[in-house]
C-alpha cells in the first residue's frame, strides 16, 4: 500500500525507534522504582508512567488517549494512583527506571559513545516537525524537559516520535471503524502484534471480549478463524484494511522524517537498529511477546 519510498523509510525508522522506547515497560526497574514511591501494582505502574506527563488526569482521559485499554482496568487505578504518588514523582521514578534499564541492556560504553549522542541529535531534530494539535499524548510528553544525558535524550526523542505516531494511528483506527478490542485482534491476526496472552494480561479485556471482537471481525469479512478462535487469519479484505491503516498512519506521521531528510532518516535508522538490536540481544522483551497463538 505504501508505494512512496520515503514513507517506507520513515516506517522502517519508526519500527526500530519504538521498541527502544518500550524497553522500560518490560523492565524490572520500572516496577522497582514505582514501588519505591508506593505504586506496587504493575497495571497502576504502567498507567501512571505513561500518563504522568498529562498531570493528575482522570480515568476517562487515560482511556481516551490509550485507546485499547479496558476502561474498567483504568478506573481501578486512576485517579487513585495520584493520591499515592504525584505525576512529578512518577516522572522522576520513570526516568530512574529508564536510565537503569538502558545501562543494563546497552552498557556504559554504548551510552557514552559518540553514536548515542548522534542518535539523540538526529531523533530530536526529527521531533522539531511534530505537531501538538489533536495529539494529546505527544503534546503532553513534548512539555517534558529534554534530559541532558545523551542516552536519556535519545530515549525521550523516541518517546515523542512513538506517541506522535500513536496519536495519529488512533485517529486512523477510528476512521476504519475498529473499536479497541477489534484493533487489537486484527493486529494479532497480522502475526506482528502482541500475543493474546499478553494483551489479555495487560489491557484488561477478558477472553469473552476478545472472542466477541473476533466474531465481529469475522462477520465483517475481515477475519477467518478456527472453531475455538485460537488461530486467526486475515482475509484478503482484512489484509487490505490493515495495509490501508498503516498507509494512513504513515501519511499522518510523515512530517518528522521529511524534516530530518533522507540522509538523516537513513543514519538514524542505522544507529537505532544497532541500539535496539543490542537491547533485544540482552533480553529486553519476553521471547513470547509477539505471536498469533491464543
Describe the SSE topology.
Elements: H1 5-22, H2 28-36, H3 42-51, H4 59-66, H5 71-77, H6 81-84, H7 87-106, H8 108-111, H9 114-127, H10 136-142, H11 150-175, H12 180-189, H13 196-203, H14 207-219, E1 223-225, E2 232-234, H15 236-252, H16 254-260, H17 262-281
Antiparallel strand pairs: 1-2
Helix pairs in contact: 1-11, 1-17, 2-3, 2-7, 4-5, 9-11, 9-16, 9-17, 10-11, 11-15, 12-14
Please list the strands of the largest sheet in the order they lie side by side: 1-2
Mean pLDDT: 95
Strands, count: 2
* SSE order, one letter for each helix or strand: HHHHHHHHHHHHHHEEHHH
Distance from N terminus to C terminus (CA atoms, Å) equals: 28 Å
Structural class: mainly alpha
Work out the strand percent. Answer: under 5%
What is the radius of gyration?
19 Å
Q: Main attributes?
A:
two-stranded antiparallel sheet, mainly alpha, 294 residues, 2% strand
Amino acid at each position: 500500500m505504501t508505494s512512496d519510498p520515503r514513507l517506507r523509510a520513515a516506517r522502517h525508522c519508526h519500527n526500530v525507534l519504538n521498541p527502544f522506547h518500550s524497553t522500560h515497560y518490560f523492565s524490572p526497574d520500572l516496577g522497582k522504582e514505582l514501588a519505591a514511591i508506593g505504586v506496587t501494582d504493575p497495571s497502576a505502574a504502567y498507567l501512571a508512567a505513561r500518563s504522568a506527563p498529562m498531570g493528575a488526569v482522570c480515568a476517562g482521559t487515560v482511556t481516551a488517549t490509550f485507546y485499547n485499554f479496558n476502561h474498567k482496568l483504568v478506573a481501578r487505578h486512576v485517579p487513585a494512583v495520584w493520591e499515592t504518588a504525584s505525576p512529578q514523582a512518577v516522572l522522576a521514578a520513570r526516568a530512574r527506571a529508564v536510565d537503569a534499564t538502558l545501562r543494563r541492556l546497552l552498557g556504559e560504553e554504548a551510552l557514552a559513545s559518540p553514536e548515542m549522542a548522534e542518535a539523540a541529535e538526529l531523533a530530536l531534530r526529527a521531533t522539531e516537525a511534530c505537531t501538538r494539535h489533536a495529539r494529546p499524548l505527544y503534546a503532553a510528553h513534548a512539555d517534558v524537559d529534554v534530559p541532558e544525558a545523551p542516552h536519556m535524550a535519545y530515549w525521550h526523542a523516541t518517546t515523542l516520535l512513538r506517541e506522535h505516531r500513536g496519536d495519529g494511528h488512533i485517529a486512523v483506527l477510528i476512521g476504519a471503524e475498529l473499536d479497541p478490542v477489534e484493533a487489537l485482534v486484527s493486529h494479532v491476526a497480522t502475526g506482528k502484534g502482541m500475543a493474546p496472552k499478553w494483551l489479555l494480561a495487560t489491557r484488561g479485556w477478558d477472553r469473552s471480549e476478545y472472542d466477541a471482537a473476533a466474531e465481529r471481525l469475522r462477520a465483517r469479512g475481515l477475519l477467518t478463524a478456527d472453531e475455538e478462535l485460537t488461530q486467526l487469519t486475515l482475509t484478503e479484505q482484512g489484509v487490505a484494511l490493515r495495509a490501508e491503516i498503516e498507509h494512513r498512519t504513515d501519511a499522518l506521521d510523515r512530517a518528522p522524517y521529511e524534516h530530518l531528510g533522507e540522509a538523516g532518516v537513513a543514519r538514524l535508522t542505522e544507529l537505532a537498529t544497532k541500539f535496539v538490536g543490542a537491547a533485544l540481544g540482552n533480553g529486553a522483551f519476553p521471547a513470547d511477546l509477539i505471536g498469533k497463538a491464543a
